[in-house]
Write a structure and sequence with these properties.
- This protein is an alpha+beta fold and about 200 residues long.
- It contains five helices and eight strands; from the N terminus they run H-H-H-H-H-E-E-E-E-E-E-E-E.
- A hairpin with a 4-residue loop joins strand 7 and strand 8.
- Helix 1 packs parallel to helix 3.
- The protein starts with a helix and ends in a 5-residue tail after the last strand.
């Protein structure tokens, strides 16, 4: 098994020339961390480099494997999520959950991509009823989202071709039961990685 730091160095080798973090960190800075045995800083640099750009699925796979080796389970799940986005694309949205008195959900849920609710994305059946589509849900920057809460989220459609008509500004309804459980406004479409 390849050790975590070697995986991080392999990920750094996949970065395009000139990629920097917002603070100016580079792939060379990641390599320099090897001399100091500072894998945590290297890991954080690599995550930051992927924050605002599309990077190849193997990059995220290496980071996921490294995170798993060092016990950063949520980070490993996040990197797996980003690998999926690099392969299939996704949707970013601002989600507002219905309050506990108005929706089906009465407790918070973990925002780490395990919840797979249905969404009204504007599709209709032959009789005009909503035809719901399933997408996994990741809550950005929060480990949990409670009823009545709001957060930026990422959606991973289970059938991406159904979501091709979704555009920035669209309103989506979240369903975990027959009652709408929240409303989301699309902030952006996450494109799959193109070399």
């Amino acid at each position: 098994m390849t050790d975590a730091f070697t995986l991080l160095l392999q990920a750094a080798d996949l970065l395009p020339d000139g990629v920097r973090t917002a603070e100016g960190g580079t792939a060379e800075d990641v390599r320099d961390c090897g001399w100091r045995h500072d894998w945590e800083f290297a890991f954080d640099l690599l995550l930051a480099m992927g924050r605002a750009r599309s990077l190849p699925p193997p990059y995220w796979g290496l980071l996921a494997d490294a995170a798993g080796q060092v016990g950063r389970e949520r980070t490993a799940r996040w990197c797996d999520w980003r690998r999926g986005e690099a392969e299939r694309g996704g949707v970013r949205a601002e989600l507002v959950l219905a309050g506990a008195d108005a929706g089906w959900r009465t407790t918070p849920f973990a925002g780490d991509g395990r919840l797979r609710p249905m969404w009204d994305i504007g599709l209709r059946t032959a009789t005009g009823e909503p035809s719901l589509a399933v997408a996994a849900l990741w809550v950005e920057d929060e480990p949990f989202l409670a009823p009545g809460g709001a957060a930026a989220v990422r959606l991973a459609p289970l059938t991406p071709e159904l979501w091709q008509g979704v555009a920035v500004g669209d309103r989506l309804a979240l369903y975990e039961s027959a009652v709408p459980g929240g409303s989301a406004r699309v902030l952006g479409i996450v494109a799959s990685f193109r070399a």
